[in-house]
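in:
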């Protein structure tokens, strides 16, 4: 098959830079000198552009074209994938191979292309690989030219959105390499290292490292010696094994055992790694060498005692992580992966579930090196699709190959302790499910028999009927990951399936926005649909129907020894699935303990208080600025100390204490003793309606004070046994004064791909972060380049790869990529009216004389937004402030909300005590406002109205305000006041029945009137 523009003629070769391949080892980095053309954003299948087409742009892999596009509403985008388009893209690379490679075996390996890729060499189709998350390789064979004539490698990538339920990215987003070997060589993924019977042999002080090597000879039968040399974590040779094999065209496997004395075990605290160098020797000459890193460890999932590693019982303190890297999108970066995992480890995390797809090799390697356990997951869908263009189209034909590839790619990782064959699979409830599950389980075990096989499911919240598809599948699996089960349901499953182990594959799904707080006295809250304010509360109290609070999930897991642990949904916000909002431009999830920029939310500190032993205390709200004097503020403290004392401006507000309790299996923990009201399924015992531990206790995992606000410094002092062990404080901020830049490192590599993460904060004159600052910050980089900008805000239409970004709640993040020459990387951040900040990072190594990446152009000035109607809170998507001004009396703004019941909590609909609306005013002085209020079963006329106007810095009260209430139906209420000049008028409305379902506020029409 020949595609237009693919033939490697002399003219084509001259149209692009030609890379001369000079292999210096087995693998050649093939990520540089590519060209890319985005043909369309729809995914329509059309030919490759001509080589001279101006659409071609220089690029370097890994590359995600979608992350650089503007989020847009349209037929080919949606909230689920972050409003970022996919489309059809072509990549091409021109290269020459020396004549010395004519007798070599040459193949091209891709770690991942999203998705539905076709690869061509010199116009010949090498293969088609639909799945976006598994690696693949093609033999270049006779199609490659080794006479100095240029070769053209072309890759077609087609991502028809929606192809996923979350943001996938588009393109060759993982690494690519050329693999060059002699005819006799180890096959792809051809080395497998295991440590049989380690739990027994370690008692005698040794480990048996079994090295199985699969190799071939592509030029007739060859007698070979296979030598495996083992090096310990310090690089010292500690063992060697040899096997002989007659190699032929069909792969054959030879096995050797190497005894390792007193092995250094791999664990989450000491991730010791061994290296196995496997050589193929023919007539005494080494013709191929493969290096494998692995670890010596043993683990167990016991149905009665949970998880243990190296004989030590421990809970899986896990998180789910999707594969996007914030502003980098899907494009793989080791530095970005390591940063994410470091943040997770600092929270106390020891495990990650790769939701819901195989991870990159870089991710697995980072977990190996950092001591993070892994559940590696294969699919989000089997045959039945979840969205129109997902993997279900290809499942029957490709799933066995893709599943085996997943296992092969990570089989030597000591971090991997489970294989998952799927997540929330619709097929698993039907007759087709058990046969598919049986095939997939067999596929895994054909490669690896050393790890259990599980799946994640939301279909076991009740014990399945005997013989049902769910029952049949669970009988096949080694264990099951439950998604959002309550405590009683997991107890029932444990009783029904006593030989299976259970854990929570997805726990909690409490949603939150960094720095936003709402209704701390409620266990569940409504959502604010006001444009620009679409946030969710950080008091662990915004829950969808299937979800529960983080505290509930922690207690449920803690109380059951047999329960192996949990994987929080999610560790980090990800692009797409912006639950609970499905409206532009909300484009990232709210589920994370950390936002997409890597900034911790309060949820992070809740889990840190339960999962980390390092002394800590954390105060929320993190904003001690945006309150009225005397206003009661619900102050919480998360801590792993038994006592916390709170101080305001040096005055003690008293101590609060946790009780020390013990689980039924003897584990000690801290918890208050008070009814929690967080589980309506509990109908008996001393605390009906509250989650009750098997030891009959109830309580909360946080301490609470009600503090009348006054500006200054709020300090929490945590004590253990009366000894101060940790402190936290929040301070009242003044006006924004300057930008503060903090890079996460001072030295980086000058390799053209290393990243420095620079945090930008808007601070006042005292250096306090201004918690509501939203200044537009422009970044300029010299000696490197700007890789991406983020601020963690979920509701944002800003481009991730622009040169400017607004601060969100006082913060933004710049990802800075190094150049390829030794230099000083200078990052400069500017914002109108603020002091400019500069940070420097030294880039070392690289090649002297290489030109650094050009600095980005300055950001064009952004026009100030035109004032429009606004509100502190809008209860539904259709009742936003603009409805007051649309001239249609049947539409209206309202703060009414109805939060549906969850599995644990009743429905809630409680009017706020106050909310405000603001209206645009004209150039003439303003002296009155006319408003038509809703009065019905849910809405009542406000009890009072306070009017203020914007003076350029803040809202200040008007003078001589008086209300003329409407006395006839259809007539507006008039609010008159001394005339003011302002572009905005704000009206604070007080509910006549706060805390009830009848005291909500609604305005159908509003008019600002001239004061003349």
């Amino acid at each position: 098959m020949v595609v237009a523009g693919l033939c490697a003629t002399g003219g084509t070769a001259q149209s692009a830079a030609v890379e001369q391949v000079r292999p210096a080892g087995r693998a050649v980095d093939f990520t540089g000198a590519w060209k890319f053309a985005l043909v369309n954003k729809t995914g329509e299948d059309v030919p490759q552009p001509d080589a001279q087409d101006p659409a071609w742009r220089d690029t370097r892999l890994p590359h995600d074209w979608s992350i650089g596009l503007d989020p847009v509403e349209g037929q080919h985008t949606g909230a689920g994938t972050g409003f970022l388009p996919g489309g059809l893209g072509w990549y091409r690379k021109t290269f020459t191979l020396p004549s010395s490679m004519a007798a070599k075996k040459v193949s091209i390996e891709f770690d991942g292309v999203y998705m539905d890729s076709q690869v061509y060499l010199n116009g010949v189709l090498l293969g088609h690989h639909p799945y976006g998350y598994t690696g693949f390789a093609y033999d270049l064979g006779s199609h490659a030219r080794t006479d100095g004539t240029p070769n053209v490698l072309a890759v077609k990538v087609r991502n028809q959105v929606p192809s996923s339920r979350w943001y996938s990215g588009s393109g060759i987003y993982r690494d690519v390499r050329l693999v060059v070997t002699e005819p006799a060589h180890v096959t792809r993924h051809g080395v497998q290292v295991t440590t049989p019977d380690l739990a027994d042999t370690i008692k005698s002080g040794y480990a048996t490292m079994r090295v199985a090597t699969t190799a071939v000879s592509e030029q007739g039968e060859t007698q070979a010696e296979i030598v495996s040399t083992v090096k310990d974590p310090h690089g010292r040779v500690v063992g060697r094994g040899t096997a002989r094999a007659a190699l032929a065209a069909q792969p054959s496997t030879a096995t050797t055992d190497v005894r390792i004395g007193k092995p250094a075990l791999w664990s989450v605290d000491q991730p010791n790694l061994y290296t196995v160098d496997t050589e193929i020797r023919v007539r005494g000459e080494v013709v191929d060498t493969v290096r494998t890193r692995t670890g010596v460890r043993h683990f167990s999932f016991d149905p009665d005692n949970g998880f243990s590693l190296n004989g030590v019982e421990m809970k899986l303190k896990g998180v789910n992580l999707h594969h996007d890297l914030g502003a980098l999108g899907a494009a793989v970066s080791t530095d970005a992966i390591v940063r994410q995992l470091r943040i997770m480890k600092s929270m106390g995390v020891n495990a990650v579930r790769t939701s819901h797809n195989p991870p990159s090799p870089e991710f697995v390697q980072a977990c190996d090196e950092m001591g993070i356990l892994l559940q590696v997951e294969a699919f989000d869908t089997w045959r039945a699709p979840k969205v129109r263009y997902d993997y279900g189209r290809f499942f029957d034909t490709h799933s066995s190959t893709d599943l085996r590839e997943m296992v092969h790619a990570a089989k030597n990782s000591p971090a991997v302790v489970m294989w998952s064959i799927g997540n929330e699979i619709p097929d698993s409830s039907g007759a087709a499910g058990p046969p598919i599950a049986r095939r997939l389980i067999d596929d895994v075990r054909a490669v690896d028999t050393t790890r259990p096989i599980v799946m994640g499911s939301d279909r076991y919240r009740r014990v399945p009927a005997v013989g049902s598809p769910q029952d049949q599948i669970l009988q096949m699996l080694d264990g099951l990951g439950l998604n959002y089960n309550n405590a009683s349901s997991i107890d029932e499953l444990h009783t029904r399936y006593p030989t299976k182990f259970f854990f929570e594959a997805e726990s909690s799904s409490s949603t939150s926005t960094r720095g936003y707080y709402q209704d701390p006295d409620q266990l569940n809250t409504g959502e604010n649909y006001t444009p620009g304010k679409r946030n969710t509360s950080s008091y662990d109290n915004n829950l969808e129907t299937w979800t529960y609070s983080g505290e509930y999930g922690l207690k449920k897991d803690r109380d059951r020894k047999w329960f192996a642990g949990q994987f929080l949904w999610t560790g980090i916000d990800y692009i797409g699935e912006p639950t609970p909002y499905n409206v532009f431009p909300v484009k990232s999830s709210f589920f994370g303990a950390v936002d997409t920029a890597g900034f911790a939310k309060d949820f992070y500190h809740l889990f840190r208080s339960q999962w980390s032993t390092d002394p800590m205390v954390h105060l929320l709200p993190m904003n001690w600025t945006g309150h009225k004097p005397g206003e009661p503020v619900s102050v919480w403290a998360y801590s792993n100390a038994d006592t916390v004392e709170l101080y305001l401006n040096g005055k003690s507000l008293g101590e609060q204490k946790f009780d020390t309790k013990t689980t039924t299996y003897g584990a000690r923990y801290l918890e208050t003793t008070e009814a929690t009201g967080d589980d309506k399924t509990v109908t008996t015992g001393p605390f009906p309606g509250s989650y009750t531990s098997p030891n009959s206790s109830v309580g909360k995992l946080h301490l609470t004070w009600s503090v009348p606000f006054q500006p200054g410094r709020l300090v929490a002092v945590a004590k253990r046994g009366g000894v101060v062990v940790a402190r936290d404080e929040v301070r009242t901020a003044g006006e924004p004064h300057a930008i503060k830049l903090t890079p996460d490192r001072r030295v980086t590599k000058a390799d053209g791909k290393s990243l420095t993460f620079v945090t930008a904060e808007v601070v006042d004159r005292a250096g306090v972060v201004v918690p509501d600052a939203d200044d537009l910050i422009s970044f300029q980089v010299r000696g490197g380049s700007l890789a991406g900008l983020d601020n963690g805000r979920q509701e944002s239409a800003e481009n991730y790869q622009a040169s400017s970004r607004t601060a969100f709640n006082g913060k933004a993040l710049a990802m800075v990529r190094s150049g390829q020459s030794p230099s000083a990387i200078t990052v400069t951040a500017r914002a109108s009216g603020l002091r400019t900040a500069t940070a420097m990072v030294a880039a070392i190594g690289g090649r002297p004389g290489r030109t650094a990446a050009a600095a980005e152009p300055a950001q064009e000035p952004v026009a100030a937004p035109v004032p429009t109607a606004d509100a502190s809170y809008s209860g539904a998507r259709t009742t936003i402030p603009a409805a007051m001004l649309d001239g249609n009396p049947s539409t209206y703004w309202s703060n009414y909300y109805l939060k549906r019941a969850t599995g644990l909590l009743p429905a809630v609909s409680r009017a706020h005590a106050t909310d405000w609306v603001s209206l645009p005013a004209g150039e003439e002085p303003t002296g009155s406002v006319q408003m038509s209020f809703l009065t019905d079963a849910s809405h009542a006329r406000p009890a009072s109205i306070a009017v203020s106007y914007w003076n350029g810095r803040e809202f200040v009260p008007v003078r001589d305000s008086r209300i003329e209430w409407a006395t006839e139906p259809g007539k507006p209420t008039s609010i008159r006041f001394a005339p003011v000049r302002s572009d905005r008028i704000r009206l604070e409305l007080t509910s006549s029945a706060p805390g009830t379902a009848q005291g909500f506020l609604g305005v159908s029409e509003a008019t600002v009137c001239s004061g003349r």
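note: The first strand starts at residue 18 and ends at 20.
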